[in-house]
Amino acid sequence: MARVKVCGLTRGADIEAAVEAGADAVGVISEIPVDTPREVDPAAAAELLADVPPFVTATLVTMPESPERAVELVRTVGPDALQLHGEWTPDEIGFIRAETERKVLLAVDADDPVRVEEFDGVVDALVVDSARESGAGGTGETHDWAATGELAARLTTPVVLAGGLTAENVAEAVRVADPFAVDVASGVELSDGRKDHNAVARFVANAGREMEVI
Question: What CATH number corresponds to the domain at position 118?
Fold first, then answer.
């Protein structure tokens, strides 16, 4: 059974639906250099994540211009965890972790296993995604789950599987890759960042089943 993060939430109602469905974590996106309807400003991010109840990880997903800005965003938004996209060094990650005292997840390209392994033990979790050239995720495209599973087996850091997951394919993805967690955004949307609450519930349920799609 994989843990579940529902990402790209822009409305309180969608966060409530994810929590009620049993999601382990929710993600709000702010300050990324790509055009997406899932992005909100830091003030809105803070307001959304403030309503996340205990025992659900409130995650800020961002691609800031510097480690210092990452720290500022954490202080503004107040998340439980920080998910970073983009090009970072281990030293920069160490600085951010020390300054924020938060768990830090790093999104890495599934097609770059060398970089994935470079950050093994450096971050609290690795989000293996189908990345854009900019380093941002959210492509809605799947990648080689078996290869990710083999990679995860070699790592000490927990692996979060992302990229093109839906309620229909997540059970198979979990069976093949055996990740610590799965991450979904566009795969459970109606349109323009608005979540389909039924799809969210089915996704969370199916992440805990092997090929028993409901």
Answer: 3.20.20.70
Three-state secondary-structure class, residue 183:
strand
Tell me, yes or no, whether 18 lies in a domain. Answer: yes
Instruction: Compute the residue count for the chain.
Output: 214
- 214 belongs to a structural domain: no
Q: Do strands 81-84 and 181-184 pair parallel, antiparallel, or not at all (unpaired)?
A: unpaired
Q: How many domains does the chain have?
A: 1
Closest Cα partner for 131 from 153, 146, 148?
148
- pLDDT by 10s per residue, the chain, length 214: 899 999 999 999 999 999 999 999 999 999 999 889 999 999 999 999 999 999 999 999 999 999 999 999 999 999 999 999 999 999 999 999 999 999 999 999 999 999 999 999 999 999 999 765 544 445 567 889 999 999 999 999 999 999 999 999 999 999 999 999 999 999 999 988 899 999 999 999 999 864 444 4
69 located within any domain: yes
Q: Tokens 């789950």 appear where?
A: 145
Range of the domain at 69: 3-207
- Helix, coil or strand: residue 150: helix
**Of 8, 49, 1, 52, nearest in space to 200 by CA:** 8
Tell me the pTM.
Answer: 0.92
